[in-house]
Design brief:
The protein is α/β, with parallel strands linked by helices. Helices cover about 40% and strands about 15% of the residues. It binds 4'-deoxy-4'-aminopyridoxal-5'-phosphate. The site of 4'-deoxy-4'-aminopyridoxal-5'-phosphate has 14 residues, from helix 4.
Length: about 400
């Protein structure tokens, strides 16, 4: 059985690109369904990292020698690839170590800019990842600002009426996830971004779980900042991107101080570099940037719209098969999802189920998914989450389902 976005040959070819998929776990083929935590890398990305270290490893921007020039060209070339992919200016692409780093950068510079005063409001939602909660809590505590939270409806999606009422002239920052890592739903961020902009608030979109799964257009989305991580889109860990609106970032103070982010330094006075260097202090993750550029090329060779169609078939199929079974609760059932389906099985703890599924070679994530406040809203301690990448197949969903059925028989 094949998902129709790809022919079976096409999917086989894609899978062939990922050496790790040949692994066996306890004598069974690996079924890797933990892509929301981190995705696997295709050969071209692995090769890009290796070639960098084997052939032109050098520090960038400063050296006049050949290797430094090659490394700089590859690093800046990756920035161009990313700018084109997300429809923004190259000056708006800041390399970070990941989504967490990007959000801390934004909250850090807004704090340093004294953008907030006591009583101002920061708006997030009930299903944010800890990395889109804690930096704002820290900033709120620093200045006496108030952290407001968009609640969920009984269907476990954003309560849009409540959200609209929460965006007022007191709202100074709106920071929202595009897709929930815990329950996979696509959040209707566009309307809230425009409402926030009408009130003059600064907006940030946590795109950690959307950038890997469907096309994003920075200009069209209209947010001031978008953050995401390379390791969830077929690149290595330790590399991520902050896309930031140029006119805004030009007025904001720097974040980390050090080499590369300056033009002129004396002990008394410093002039800072232009964008994007202003926010890239120190030696960056050069290999990671180059590999991320390659991962974006890989995605574009296949086409994000095709990837989206394929993954949507996987999640729709899993959801429909799960809903035929007794005693299984799907979170945000029926809501439009990207890349993940979360569920609970009556009378079986998610950790036990995850551990048993591993015995069948099936890798899923169990627990709170770094969303403890969401778990508190849902009144649970965790879920089982299956999350998809371009290489997953309907056969693998069937393998998950078969392993799930056997695990239930063993546990009940
Ligand atoms: N936000 C969301 C929605 C995520 O899924 C994740 C990773 N699970 C993060 C933020 C944090 O990403 P990272 O650990 O790569 O910084």
């Amino acid at each position: 059985m094949n998902a129709s976005a790809f022919t079976s040959d096409e999917l086989d070819q894609i899978r062939d690109e990922f050496p790790i998929l040949k692994r066996e776990i306890k004598g069974r083929p690996l079924v890797y369904l933990d892509n929301a935590a981190t995705s696997q890398s295709p050969r071209c990305v692995l090769e890009a990292s290796r070639t960098y270290y084997e052939s032109y490893n050098a520090n960038i921007h400063r050296g006049v020698h050949r290797l430094a020039q090659e490394a700089t060209a590859a690093y800046e070339g990756a920035r161009d690839t990313i700018a084109t992919h997300f429809n923004c200016q190259r000056e708006e692409v800041i390399f970070t170590s990941g989504t967490t780093d990007g959000i801390n950068l934004v909250s850090g510079i807004l704090g340093r800019a004294k953008y907030l005063k006591a009583g101002d409001e920061i708006l997030i939602s009930a299903l944010e990842h800890h990395s889109n909660i804690v930096p704002w809590r820290l900033l709120a505590d620093e200045v006496g600002a108030i952290l407001k939270v968009i609640p969920l409806t009984a269907d476990e999606v954003w309560d849009i009426d409540a959200a609209k009422a929460l965006i007022t002239e007191r709202t100074k920052i709106v920071a929202l996830s595009h897709v929930s890592n815990a329950i996979g739903i696509i959040n209707p961020i566009e309307s809230l971004i425009s409402l926030a902009k009408e009130q003059g608030a600064i907006t940030l979109v946590d795109a950690a779980q959307s950038a890997p799964h469907f096309p994003l257009d920075f200009q069209q989305m209209g947010a001031d900042f978008i953050v995401f991580s390379g390791h969830k889109m077929y690149a290595p860990t330790g590399i991520g991107v902050l896309l930031g609106r140029r006119e805004l970032m030009e007025t904001l103070p720097p974040y980390r101080g050090g080499g590369e982010m300056i033009k002129q330094v004396t002990f008394d006075q410093i002039t800072y570099n232009d964008l994007p260097g202003k926010y890239e202090a120190g030696t960056p993750n050069i290999e990671g940037v180059i590999a991320l550029g390659e991962a974006i090329n890989f995605i574009n060779r296949i086409g994000l719209s095709k990837i989206q169609a394929h993954e949507s078939e996987l999640s729709t199929y899993l959801e429909s098969q799960l809903s035929k079974r007794e005693g299984i609760r799907i979170y945000a059932a029926g809501a439009k999802k990207a890349g993940a389906v979360s569920f609970a099985v009556d009378a079986i703890h998610h950790y036990d189920l995850g551990t048993l599924l591993d015995q069948f070679g099936v890798a899923v994530r169990t627990g709170h998914h770094c969303c403890q406040p969401l778990m508190q809203c849902l009144n649970i301690t965790g879920t089982v989450r299956a999350s998809f990448g371009v290489y997953n197949s309907l056969e693998e969903i069937d393998q998950l389902l078969a392993a799930l059925d056997k695990s239930r028989q063993m546990l009940l």
